[in-house]
What we know:
Order of helices and strands: EHEHEHE
Largest sheet: 2 strands, parallel
Radius of gyration: 16 Å
Strand order of the largest sheet: 1-2
Number of strands: 4
Strand content: 15-25%
Structural class: alpha/beta
Amino acid sequence: FKYSIQKKVLDGDINDKLTIQKAKQEDKLINKIMLEEGIHGFSSVTVAKNWCEGASYILQLTGLGGMIPNTVMLGWPSNNNVTTKSQAHDYVKVLRLSLNTGKAILAIKGLKIMPLRDQVMTGTMDVWWMIHDGGL
């Protein structure tokens, strides 16, 4: 069976009732999608001032004891979702934090359009191994 830990960062103020309500709605939506796709696991929505801070919370606090995920999957930035220099810096900060916490990183181009269920994908998959001396 498929097993997954799904995390989402919601930008907002943790003390705002509307933000808390939206976080609960997002979590219900994630659970519904997981159920429809036959994915067993856990989901949660983290509320933070911004995506970078929320990602930092998730990377540091996910897991229980020795059961800690070792891989982070991120969407590869495109012109549509990285519109400022600040957003590009935040993406790199999350990559660095992932590496600093010993996580493998999967940066997926076209993550939002990946087919679900039993659809067949064709094309090329490029795998780049990060060498600890900074090379690829």
